[in-house]
Amino acid sequence: MVLNLVYGLALLLLSPWLAIRSVRTGRYRQHLRNKLLGHREMIAAGGREVAWFHGVSVGEVHLLRQLVRGFRDRHPDWQVVVSATTDTGLAEARKHFADLDVIPYPFDFSWAVRRTMERVRPRLIVLAESELWPNFLRAANAAGVPVVVVNGRMSPRTARRYARVAGLARRLVFGRVAAFGMQSETYSQNLCQLGVDTGRVRVTGSVKYDGVLA
Questions:
Q1: Which residue from 51, 111, 126, 150 has the highest number of Cβ atoms inside 10 Å of its Cβ?
Q2: Average pLDDT, the chain
Q3: Using CB atoms within 10 A of its CB, is residue 23 exposed (0-12), middle (13-18) or buried (19+)?
Q4: Count H helices, E strands: the chain?
Q5: How far apart are CA 12 and CA 179, in angstroms?
Q6: 122: buried, middle or exposed (CB in 10 Å: 19+, 13-18, 0-12)?
Q7: What's the DSSP call for residue 28?
């Protein structure tokens, strides 16, 4: 409830700027209902298990291409759903995952994430890099869905910011993630220094280089 109030206040304060940007650029208007209230349509999985992959924008969606391909090769009996936050990310996801369900990522209001979780009904959630929102993670945990971070980052600057509220961050964010695949040893160490169990952290390298031919 407290987070909903904080988000609501922030949205109210930013609304004039968002309205001006929307008029000038056409941004922020697409999929607003689904983002604010949650995804409306039930994902038709046909009785199959669902894996939900998420990338914030174009860069993260590109990272998911090799990962999703590899997952589908290994688990052809699973349904895969892809989401993105930005309009450009959604457009890119629809281009590269034309045969999959592509949905907008909900705002982190409790009702929006809960409704989207009910429509997607995932058995696994994979987040690219650093898209960690408390209400979303809480809803996933409540539904018994493991959340995995891939291509994770934790720069020294970001780690210092989290360190100011390390206990709260562990309880609301990091403690709700089942496993972290970090880009580098430095990022891994920075994350572990915030109190994250080392058993849940692995250095996997950058997904950016997976599938590179030259």
A1: 126
A2: 89
A3: exposed
A4: 9, 7
A5: 35
A6: buried
A7: T
- Name the token pair of 51: 């894996």
**Token pair listed for 157:** 């600057």
Please name the residues in contact with 75: beta carbons below 8 A apart, sequence gap of 6 or more.
Answer: 49, 51
Nearest to 128 by CA among 159, 162, 152: 152
Name the more confident of 35 and 71.
71
Q: Residue 180: is its pLDDT beyond 90?
A: yes
pLDDT in tens, 93-144: 999 999 999 999 999 999 999 999 999 999 999 999 978 999 999 999 999 9
Cα-Cα end-to-end distance for the chain? 50
pLDDT of residue 9: 74
* DSSP state, residue 182: E
- Tokens in use for 56? 């914030």
pLDDT tops 50 at residue 213 = no
The H or E element spanning position 180 is strand 179-182
Backbone angles phi, psi at 187, to 5 degrees: -60, -40
Q: Which two tokens stand for residue 201?
A: 């952290």
CB count in 10 Å sphere of residue 146: 15
Q: What residues contact residue 125 under an 8 Å CB cut-off, 6+ apart?
A: 51, 52, 54, 140, 145, 146, 147, 148
